[in-house]
Each structure stands twice: as structure tokens, then as C-alpha cells.
Amino acid sequence: MEFQSCVNINKEWDIVGARQIGRDFARKIGFGTVDQARIATAISELARNIYLYAGTGKICFETIEEIDHKGICIIAIDNGPGIAEISKVMEDGYSTSGGLGAGLPGVKRLMDDFDIVSEQEKGTEIRAVKWVR
Amino acid sequence: MDRKLKELVVENSDTIVHMWLEEVSKSRQTDYTSTISDELFESTNREFVNVIFASVEKQGITTELDDFSERLVNLGWPLSYLTDGLQAFRRVTIDFILSELDQVDSNYFSQVLQAVDKWVDPIINQLVNEYSGSWEHIVSLQRVALQELSAPLIPVMENITVMPLIGTIDTERAKLIMENLLDGVIKHNAEVVLIDITGVPVVDTMVAHHIIQAAEAVRLIGSTCILVGIRPEIAQTIVNLGIDLGKFPTKSSLRKGFQSALELTNRKIVSTKSNHDDDIEKLVDSLDRE
């Protein structure tokens, strides 16, 4: 599968890079400032999860064009340990690292569509879509 | 063998230089150096090739090479110009040596390659080291400069301190913010401290978590923390993320935050110009009415 652009996440500063590229991407597609902030925050959460839990991975961006609307798809891929209980991480306030536990459920609320596939010891792939209104 | 080759190359340096210049100019049209003026490009080329020959003749690193690389680093010439140039030099020199000979066996050929490599490689190493050393130096200086800027604390008034935050907050910086905040509160004896996040581009759960922790720590040492500079889009993302910032007061702008800080310390801003003119007008008005 080919993506329009990808950012590798290896260091903490790569999160900032991913965020900036994502924001530019969103601006080009035609999102307003509030949605740009939402998208940048969602990318920040996903990238930080990769950095914290998987170590390395990548964030990819795609433009989705359909007949009547456009959108951005953020894909976060890693080969980390995977998530044991997906239903639990989607609960507010659940965190294994002492954080706020608002990351993934927060991303789900920030974006329009949210899809997570995770296999233990194999990795995780998260796709989140936001449509231009 | 090596010496013989060296003599051959040095004696025919004019031809090699000519070939080299042609080779370098050929690749010039498309690349990074197209913005550099022709004169500068040519004079640098001349100097570069002289430095290469000086180094080949003297076998090793020369002061000319040191000076030259130092100047190019300072001028900000791209490193790829130098590596491309040296690769071109390797190509032309080998071509030249081989064309001078009538017959070439593979043994001789590999000897030529080795000899030329022995001249060129030390120069490449030296230049790359020089460049990367200067970059590392710049990066470390910038890191120090950034750290100095990362968590400033301004005592604007007795008992009121402001911490303006600009730019991305990472774990390292979050730690510094916490330390500086607590130290500053104690040092300046602050009752109220305002954290201004107008310049923070993205507030995600990590940043929010650190701010909440900092505010909680400030509360523990007996002061109040007010979070100011929350832009509308940031407010919306915080709500979407479901972050609870209800434990401490928040304001949209530094001005509003400062006002409530004054209220908390039982003060207010009073205009020094007296309102006598208004009073007299009112008096006149009331007289008119009667």
C-alpha cells in the first residue's frame, strides 16, 4: 500500500515533525484552523503512543477524495508489542504509563472515523479519518 | 610505484586540472551551486584543486587543506560540493593515468586504484570531519540557547509571577518548567503564578498532563496557578480530548489572568488621573436640569 507521505517516529522530536507535516497537509486539503488543531493534536497523540509504547513506527497521511467530500486519513503503524485489551484502552482514564489516559479515546473524539487493529507481539495499526466540512 | 604515479600526476597537473574543471562544471547546471556567482565558483574551484594537489604532493593533511576547509565551513558551502569534487578528481586522475599507459593488466589497474584512493580518502575524511564537527558544535550551542529560553519566569509584580511558554513542550522541557516554576515561586515569594500558553502550538494529553502536575505542585506549596492564553481552537481540542482542567482557574488572555491575579492578592488597577472634570460636568448637568 502506498501513502502520500510518511514520517518515521524514532525520537521524541519526530512527533513535532509529524505534527507539522500533518498540519500542512490538512491546510492544503482545506481544513479550518480549529480542525487543523484537532488533526495536529490527534497526530501528536498517535505519534506519542508509538514513541512511548512501541519505540519506533511511522505516521502516514493520505488524502481521501470522494464525490461530494474530501478528507484526511492518518495512519499510525508500529511493530510494537500490540495492545492486549483494545476495549480497555478506549476507556477514558485508562493508562499504563501514568498519563491521563485520554489519548486514544480523545483521538476518537477528535476525528470522525476511527479504526484500530492490533495483534499482540506483532504491532498496531490505527486509521483515523477527518472530513472537511 | 606510488611515487612514480605521483610524479606522473604532478607533472601533468595542468591537464588533470583542466579535465577536473570540465567535469565539475558539467555537473554544475542542475545542482545546488547554481545560485553561486560564476567568478566565486571558479576561484573556489581553482583553490580547491590547488589544495588537492598540495595535499597529494605532500602526502597527507596540509595546513592549506585546514585553512581551506575552515573557510568553506564558515561560508556555508555545501559539503556535497567538496565530496563531488573529490570524486570527480578520483575519476579524472584514474582515467588520466590509465590513458597514459599502453597496456594495462588487472594487477597494475588495482594498484593504480589503491594509490589514488590513498591520496583522496584522507582529504575526504578530513573535510567530512571538519564539517560534521562544526555542525555538532552549532547544534550543541543551539541546544544550550534553547534551554535558556525554555522556561523563563518573570516576576512582574510583588507576589505575581508570569511564565510565558512558547513553542513545543517535550518531556525534557516539561521537567524544566516544573523545576523553574517551583523554584521561582519560592524565590519570588509569589502568591499567584500565571502560565501563559499562547505560544504553544498543540496541547495534547502529555502537555496537559504536565501542566496539571505543575499546577498541582504549585498548589501544594501554597500558591495559586492560573492558566492563561487558551486559544479557542485549543479549548475545543482540550474538550474533545476530555481533559479536566477544572482544578485551577483558566483565562483566555494574559490580561484577564493578570486582573484576576490582582483580585486574588486584593489589589486593582486605578487610574492616576483624577476624575474632577467628570464631576464638574455632572454638577453642571444637574444644575441645568434644575
How would you describe this structure in keywords?
heterodimer, A: 133 residues, alpha+beta, Heat Shock Protein 90, five-stranded antiparallel β-sheet, 4 helices, 29% strand, B: 290 residues, alpha/beta, Globin-like, Transcription Regulator spoIIAA, 5 strands, elongated, heme binding (chain B), RsbT co-antagonist protein RsbR (chain B), Bact_StressResp_Reg (chain B)
SSE arrangement:
The complex is a heterodimer of chains A (133) and B (290).
Chain A: E1 5-9, H1 12-29, H2 33-54, E2 57-65, E3 70-78, H3 86-89, H4 103-110, E4 113-119, E5 123-131
Antiparallel strand pairs in A: 1-2, 2-3, 3-5, 4-5
Helix pairs in contact in A: 1-2, 2-4
Chain B: H1 2-11, H2 13-26, H3 38-58, H4 63-75, H5 79-100, H6 106-150, E1 154-157, E2 160-166, H7 171-187, E3 192-199, H8 205-220, E4 224-228, H9 232-241, E5 250-251, H10 254-264, H11 276-289
Parallel strand pairs in B: 2-3, 3-4, 4-5
Antiparallel strand pairs in B: 1-2
